[in-house]
Amino acid sequence: MYRRIRELREDADLTQKQMSAILHCSKQVYSNYELGQRDIPTSILIALAKHFETSIDYILSLTDKKENNSQ
């Protein structure tokens, strides 16, 4: 899961600082999410999925299908 959020961020050419602003958290908190040092709250998972137009299942590595078909 942690690798996926980093890949999504990097694919979108966003910095950790930019991502933390999008998620309304500190850069350190976001960095801890990417490093797996902090559990990602459900509200943040939802925000990530919406921002990157993917599914929470993809972020959680439950599927390798990046596209979100629920829209």
TrEMBL record:
UniProt KW Chloroplast keyword: no
Keywords: DNA-binding
PANTHER family: HTH-TYPE TRANSCRIPTIONAL REGULATOR XRE, TRACRIPTIONAL REGULATORY PROTEIN-RELATED-RELATED
Name under which the protein is recorded: XRE family transcriptional regulator
InterPro entries: Cro/C1-type_HTH (IPR001387), Lambda_DNA-bd_dom_sf (IPR010982)
Annotated CDD domains: HTH_XRE
Location of the HTH cro/C1-type domain: 5-59
